C-alpha cells in the first residue's frame, strides 16, 4: 500500500503542475499582454480555466495531506526549513484567488478593478516562482538541519541560484501550458495566432530557463546532469520530451488543438519524471549528505494502509466528477461561458 500512496503523491504533484500550472499561466499571459488585448485575453481565459478554477488546488491539498499523514518527518522538515517560500506561495494563492473573484464577480466596476487586475497578474507570477524555488531547494542539498542561526537554517536553504532558476523555469512552463490550452478556446483566427505566438515565446523561454537550471546546477555542484543523462529512464524521457516539442512546433497552425494540449502535458510529465527518477525515493536531499526517503520516513503501517485505501476510494468519486466538470464546460457555448 506504500507504493499506492507514493503513486498518488507523484500524480497529485504532476496534476498540480499541469492543471494548476495552466491556471497560473493564464495570469502570466495577461501580464505579458498589451493593454489593447488584455480584455480579449481575460474573456478567453475565463472560458479556458473555468473547468479547473475551483478544482486545481485540490491536487496541492492532496499532496500536502499525503505528506502530513503518511510521511510526517518529511512534512515537518519541508514546512520548517522552507517556511518562508511556502508562506509566500500560499499568500500568492490567496491573493490571486481573491483578486480573480472580485474582478470577475464584483457588481461595482470602478478603479478597484485596476487593483484587482494587478494583484491577479503579479500573484500569478509569484506563486509558481516560489513553487519552483521550493522544488529546487528540496534537492539542492542546502537544507541544513544542523544550522544554529536563522539565516543558515531558514534562508540559505532556498535562497540560491539553482532554486531561483528552477522557479523561473516553472513560471515559463506555466505560461507555455496556459497558451497551449487557450489556443483551442478561441474561434477567431487572429486571436488564435496571437496565442500561438505566446505559446512559442514561452516554449523558447522554458528552453532558455531550462538551460539556466543546468548551468546553475553546475555552479552549485548539484548533479542534475547525472540525474538526467546517467540512466536509461532519464535519457528516454528527455528524448521523448524533445520529440514532443518538435511535433508541437510542426502542428501549431493545425486544427489539432487537443493533440497540442496532450503534447504540452506530456512534456511536463517527462520533465517531472526526469527530475525525480534518479534520486527516487529520496524526496529531500540534506546539506550534511543525508536524505529523507519515502521508503524510510513512512508513518505507521496502519496509517499508510488507511491512507492508501482512502486515496483509492476517493479517486473513484473525484476523477469521474472532474472529467464530467471539464466535459460540461467544453460543451458550453462561448457566448454563455
Automatic annotation (TrEMBL):
It is found in: Cell membrane. InterPro entries: Cyt-d_oxidase_su2. It holds the Pfam family Cyt_bd_oxida_II. Keywords: Cell membrane, Membrane, Transmembrane, Transmembrane helix. The chain crosses the membrane at residues 6-32, 53-75, 81-99, 119-139, 159-181, 201-219, 231-252, 259-277, 306-327. The keyword Membrane applies. It is a multi-pass membrane protein. Its main location: membrane. Belongs to the cytochrome ubiquinol oxidase subunit 2 family. This is Cytochrome d ubiquinol oxidase subunit II. It comes from Pedobacter alpinus.
Amino acid at each position: 500500500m506504500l507504493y499506492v500512496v507514493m503513486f498518488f503523491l507523484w500524480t497529485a504533484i504532476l496534476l498540480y503542475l499541469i492543471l494548476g500550472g495552466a491556471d497560473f499561466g493564464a495570469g502570466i499571459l495577461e501580464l505579458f499582454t498589451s493593454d489593447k488585448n488584455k480584455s480579449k485575453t481575460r474573456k478567453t481565459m475565463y472560458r479556458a480555466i473555468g473547468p479547473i478554477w475551483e478544482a486545481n488546488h485540490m491536487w496541492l491539498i492532496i499532496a500536502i495531506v499525503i505528506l502530513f499523514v503518511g510521511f510526517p518527518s518529511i512534512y515537518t522538515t519541508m514546512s520548517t526549513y522552507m517556511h518562508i517560500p511556502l508562506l509566500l506561495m500560499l499568500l500568492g494563492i490567496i491573493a490571486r484567488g481573491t483578486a480573480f473573484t472580485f474582478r470577475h464577480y464584483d457588481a461595482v466596476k470602478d478603479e478597484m478593478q485596476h487593483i484587482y487586475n494587478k494583484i491577479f497578474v503579479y500573484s500569478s507570477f509569484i506563486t509558481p516562482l516560489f513553487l519552483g524555488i521550493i522544488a529546487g531547494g528540496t534537492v539542492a542539498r542546502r537544507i541544513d538541519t544542523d544550522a544554529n542561526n536563522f539565516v543558515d537554517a531558514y534562508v540559505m536553504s532556498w535562497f540560491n541560484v539553482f532554486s531561483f532558476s528552477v522557479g523561473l523555469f516553472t513560471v515559463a512552463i506555466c505560461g507555455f501550458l496556459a497558451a497551449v490550452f487557450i489556443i483551442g478556446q478561441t474561434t477567431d483566427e487572429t486571436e488564435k495566432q496571437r496565442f500561438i505566438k505566446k505559446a512559442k515565446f514561452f516554449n523558447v523561454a522554458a528552453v532558455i530557463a531550462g538551460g539556466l537550471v543546468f548551468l546553475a546546477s553546475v555552479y552549485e555542484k548539484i548533479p542534475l546532469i547525472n540525474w538526467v543523462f546517467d540512466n536509461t529512464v532519464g535519457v528516454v524521457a528527455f528524448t521523448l520530451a524533445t520529440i514532443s516539442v518538435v511535433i508541437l512546433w510542426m502542428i501549431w497552425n493545425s486544427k489539432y488543438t487537443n493533440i497540442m494540449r496532450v503534447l504540452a502535458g506530456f512534456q511536463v510529465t517527462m520533465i517531472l519524471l526526469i527530475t525525480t527518477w534518479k534520486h527516487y525515493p529520496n524526496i529531500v536531499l540534506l546539506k550534511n549528505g543525508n536524505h529523507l526517503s519515502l521508503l524510510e520516513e513512512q508513518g505507521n503501517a496502519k496509517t499508510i494502509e488507511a491512507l492508501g485505501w482512502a486515496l483509492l476510494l476517493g479517486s473513484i468519486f473525484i476523477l469521474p466528477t472532474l472529467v464530467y466538470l471539464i466535459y460540461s464546460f467544453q460543451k458550453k457555448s462561448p457566448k454563455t461561458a
